[in-house]
Automatic annotation (TrEMBL):
<dbReference type="GO" id="GO:0008270">
    <property type="term" value="F:zinc ion binding"/>
</dbReference>
<dbReference type="InterPro" id="IPR002328">
    <property type="entry name" value="ADH_Zn_CS"/>
</dbReference>
<feature type="domain" description="Enoyl reductase (ER)">
    <location>
        <begin position="8"/>
        <end position="338"/>
    </location>
</feature>
<dbReference type="Pfam" id="PF00107">
    <property type="entry name" value="ADH_zinc_N"/>
</dbReference>
<dbReference type="Pfam" id="PF08240">
    <property type="entry name" value="ADH_N"/>
</dbReference>
<dbReference type="InterPro" id="IPR011032">
    <property type="entry name" value="GroES-like_sf"/>
</dbReference>
<dbReference type="InterPro" id="IPR020843">
    <property type="entry name" value="ER"/>
</dbReference>
<protein>
    <submittedName>
        <fullName>Iditol 2-dehydrogenase</fullName>
    </submittedName>
</protein>
<keyword id="KW-0862">Zinc</keyword>
<dbReference type="InterPro" id="IPR013154">
    <property type="entry name" value="ADH-like_N"/>
</dbReference>
<keyword id="KW-0479">Metal-binding</keyword>
<dbReference type="GO" id="GO:0016616">
    <property type="term" value="F:oxidoreductase activity, acting on the CH-OH group of donors, NAD or NADP as acceptor"/>
</dbReference>
<dbReference type="InterPro" id="IPR013149">
    <property type="entry name" value="ADH-like_C"/>
</dbReference>
<dbReference type="InterPro" id="IPR050129">
    <property type="entry name" value="Zn_alcohol_dh"/>
</dbReference>
<comment type="similarity">
    <text>Belongs to the zinc-containing alcohol dehydrogenase family.</text>
</comment>
<dbReference type="InterPro" id="IPR036291">
    <property type="entry name" value="NAD(P)-bd_dom_sf"/>
</dbReference>
<keyword id="KW-0560">Oxidoreductase</keyword>
Length: 340
């Protein structure tokens, strides 16, 4: 089979690999959809390095179980099952792993599919059976791929924040995670202020129901958010872009007793505790989601009829991988996915 390899310097290749064979506790999936995540761009843009052990990219897998190895007992791992993958693998025995947070495992080095082990930008993928999450028949494979990281990351942030329909949420960045946040927050009844410098992404946010859409280059963000909230500021802010300026604005335009959640990779933040102390803010980082949260996000999307397929503006084949990432690298428009 052929799989996509990131080479750095905004280059990639389709390289030949043997078809995977499951070992003990493992399954092989026939990949039906593999999402493109904004974090892919960090590797895609990195300096070129020649690797003696190239790894297939893609950490938003969704497909069908086609083979199982010895000792597989998961009810989700039967041949023919439609599944998503929680793309982290820990020791499976420690407190963090058993609570559904294998990415927090400290007992063994954490495996990240698509980074440390072969990912889903290929026809087949081998994973540990305990990383599988069932995919409801009412969700498309593309929707399942989105939930496997980008959309699931937005949901995981909301679980940490405690978002409710009473909140006014400012979402900084309307890329795949930010647009997912806008879509899911509106489905929960929240009032949403969406911010992005890209016109296409602002248009998508408006189409997804954002109550207000702002271009940070055209206004003073702090003043604009306060004007939209009777001078008080948002009750919650979510930063998804990874831009330092956006993270600083997210911490400043929230009202006293509010919650700030930081998701975007790349931002470096400095602040004065003396200025922040009396605001009584909760400042939370959030790293993807737990296995249970991934399932909960899928269940919510079915129950509320959330149109996750509308997140995708680009659908590609693996043969179009170079064109796909060249376009994705522009960071304009919505989410991309490879369909097999």
């Amino acid at each position: 089979m052929r799989g996509v390899i990131f080479r750095g310097d905004c280059t990639l290749e389709l390289e030949n690999f043997p078809d995977p064979t499951p070992g003990p506790g493992e399954v092989v999936l026939e990949i039906k959809a593999s999402g493109m995540c904004g974090s892919d761009l960090h590797v895609y843009r990195s300096p070129r390095v020649e690797s003696t052990r190239p790894v297939i990219a893609g950490h938003e897998p969704c497909g069908v179980v086609v083979a199982t190895g010895p000792g597989v007992v998961s009810p989700y791992a039967r041949v023919g099952s439609r599944v998503m993958v929680h793309h982290y693998r820990g020791c499976a025995a420690c407190e963090d792993c058993r609570s559904g947070w294998p990415q927090m495992c400290h007992a063994v080095p954490v495996t990240v599919y698509g980074s440390d082990a072969h990912g889903a930008h290929a026809p087949y993928m081998k994973v540990a059976a305990d990383t599988l999450v069932p995919l409801d028949d009412r969700l498309s494979f593309a929707a399942g791929a989105a939930i496997s990281c980008g959309t699931g990351t937005a949901w995981g942030a909301f679980e940490r924040m405690g978002l409710t329909g009473r909140d006014t949420l400012a979402v900084f960045g309307q890329g795949p995670v930010g647009l997912s946040a806008t879509l899911l927050a509106k489905a929960q009844g929240a009032r949403v202020i969406a911010l992005d410098i890209d016109e296409n992404r602002r248009a998508s946010a408006k189409a997804f129901g954002a109550d207000h859409v702002l271009n940070p280059r055209d206004c003073n963000v702090i003043d604009a958010v306060r004007e939209l909230t009777a001078g008080r500021g948002a009750t919650m802010t979510l930063e998804t872009s990874g831009a330092t300026a956006a993270a600083e604005d997210a911490m400043t335009c929230v009202r006293p007793w509010g919650t700030v959640c930081l998701v975007g990779i790349g931002a470096e933040i400095r602040f004065s505790l003396a200025k922040m102390l009396r605001s009584q803010l909760r400042i939370l980082p959030s790293w993807t989601m737990s296995i249970m949260a991934q399932k909960a996000c899928a269940d919510f999307s079915v129950e509320r009829n959330v149109d996750l397929d509308s997140l995708f503006t680009d659908r590609w084949t693996l043969d179009q991988a170079e064109e796909a990432y060249t376009k994705f690298n522009l960071q304009s428009g919505g989410k991309g996915v490879f369909l097999m």
